[in-house]
Each structure stands twice: as C-alpha cells, then as structure tokens.
Give the backbone structure.
Amino acid sequence: MVTGRGARWFAGALIVACMTLVGPSAPKGTLFTRPLPAGAPEDVVPNRVMTWNICNPCNESGQNLGRAADIATYAPQVIGMQEACVRDVKRIRDHLEYQYGLVYHVEYGSVLRSWSRCGGLPWRPGGFGQAILSAAPMTDRVSVEYPDGGSEDRGYMAVTTTVDGRSVRVFNTHLAQRRQEDVRAEQAGVLAAVVARHDRAIVLGDFNAVPQAPELAEMWAVAADADPQCRASDTAEGTCEVTTDWYSKFDYIFLRDIAPVGHGVRLTRFSDHNMFHADVDLSDPT
C-alpha cells in the first residue's frame, strides 16, 4: 500500500499524465483531434460568416467535438448558433481552441432557462437560445425576447464585431416553430425594423420558413440572402439550397448592403440542420 508522501507523489504524477493527454493545454494535432478535410483553412477566414442550428436535444456521441471539427473545416470569422446550450457552446469553443488553434470570443442570447433542454440542477437549469462566436471582440451586445415566442420563448441577439476588416452589426435569431406563421410574421417584423436602422448588417438565423413564405416579407424588404440565386419570389423547386434534413431552406444569412462573394451548405451528422456559410465583401463602393 502506498501511503503518505508516496501516495501524494503518485496522485500528482497521475494528474500530470492525464493533463498531458487530454488537458486544455493539449496542442493542435493531438491524438484526440478529429482530422479535417484536405484544404481546410489553417486560420480563421476573416470575411466568412456562418449560421447553424446545432440541434437540441440531439444525443450523437461526441457531438461537441464533432461540431467543433465541422466548424473548423470552414473556420468562419463569425458563427451564429441557434438551439444552443451555454454548456455546449463553451465546450465547442474550447475544442476549437485547444484542438484546432482557432480562438473565438463568445456572447450568449439565452431566452430560456431549461433543465430538459440543457440540464443542470432543477433550480438552476442551463441557458438555452442563441450564441455568437467571433474571432474579433464583440461590443454592444443586446438580447431581446420577442413579445410572442409562440410555443417556446424565442428572440434575437445582436453584437458589433469585425468582419472583412470592417465593423458591422451582426444579428442572430431563431423564429417560432413551424405551423405558427402569424407568430413568425410578427417576430420577423420586429427584427426587420431593428435591422433597418443600420446602414450595413448581417442577420444569421433559423427562420423556420421557406423563402417565399409571406411571414418573411419584411426581412426580404431590408436585406438579401447570401445565396444570390435564392429570392423571396422564387417558387421553383431547387432554386435555393436546402439547409435541413427535411429538404427545406429554413436557415439564412441575410445581408444588408453587403455583397456576397461565395457560399456553401455543409451536411453534418451532428444536427438536423446543415451548416450554411458565406464569404462577404464589406469594402466601401468605389
């Protein structure tokens, strides 16, 4: 039996060994890093933004490490997440930093405290809602709950941060669930009115509505989607890239007076929504 000083030495050595293998200081490229596809960026892409409903509850094994790997594959400057638990976002951010060397600031727009969604103690449930990760610092954060959330509290958040080397207001939202068209119309009206106050803005989110849905009319009036082939008037099947497992486009990157220069949708097994990313140009018109 090991006792006294020997026991303390053995325990300390074991802790050091464990930290060497899995601790937060584990370097990029450790045994536990999920490999990225060839051609993945080595650093954050300064003009790239992404929106992703990360799905909750989803119980895929290793989902937060997998989510981090999916994000690192494109390394956006800004990521807007919906259905995000604070605990999950913290783990994703840590994985991005310690496994892939991508350092992000984070701000939360939680509108709901939910034990069933995010766990925690019954009297101290986890925060659930939106989150924004940005490689640049964020200021002037606001988190607003819509007057009517529908079947579940919903809202939007906004921050000022840097994209493509320019300061810009970024919004992130999640509108009411499907079959609540009137509620979504009111929510979209609230959001559009705020977005319209800015000369330039980026709006990320899960709008739970296809492009031609009447409830999105006020958003289309103040901004355009980063997919230039996708418009409010489009009704032809296949014009807009689908962003969900049920073959609908619900996820948008609305750009107000900002030019898109490329976009893509990535399938992922860690959510029922795909990742939608876009490269943008914030340079002033000449």
